[in-house]
Amino acid sequence: MAEVTQQMLEKQVGEFQALQKEYSKAVSSRTTLEAQLKENEMVKKEFDCLKEDSTVYKLIGPVLVKQDRPEAEANVNKRIEYIAGEIKRLETQIKSFEEKQEQKKMEIVKLQTAFEQLKQQ
Questions:
Q1: Which of 82, 70, 81, 90 is nearest to 29 (CA)?
Q2: Given the DSSP bridges, would you call strands 56-60 and 63-67 parallel, antiparallel or unpaired?
Q3: pLDDT by residue for the chain (121 residues), tens digit each?
Q4: What angle do CA 111, 115, 121 make, to 5 degrees?
Q5: Of 117, 104, 115, 94, nearest to 28 (Cα)?
């Protein structure tokens, strides 16, 4: 009986570690997206400071290419919208991982307690 409990405990610990890895990936992705969002918001503020007849260039590889201002602003706005949506999605995913981790912790504690009791008998 103790061996079965130990195997179940090892399985739960493995699943908990896998959850931790996924959680870390999601947090890292969110951090990257937040940096991109701030960068794009700064670009948007720069557009607000420009005069209507200002020329806008887009960096494509090593070359600056002239771009229509309305098109450039629309692209930045779309990017901001997309990134904000991805951050929201990751927030939901992170919350889910946190809940699952908490459940796994509880299961592990129960199994550890049961295993210790079996060892004492």
A1: 90
A2: antiparallel
A3: 778 888 888 999 999 999 999 999 999 999 999 999 999 999 999 999 998 888 999 999 999 999 999 999 999 999 999 999 999 999 999 999 999 999 999 999 998 888 888 888 7
A4: 150
A5: 94
C-alpha angle 113/119/121, rounded to 5°?
105
Sorted by where each starts, the structural domains of the chain and their CATH numbers stand as: 2-15+46-120 (1.10.287.370)
Half-sphere exposure of 57 (CA within 13 A, CB side): 7
16's tokens = 């908990």
CA-based nearest residue to 73, from 89, 95, 93, 50: 50
Q: Which residues pair with 67 in a beta bridge?
A: 56
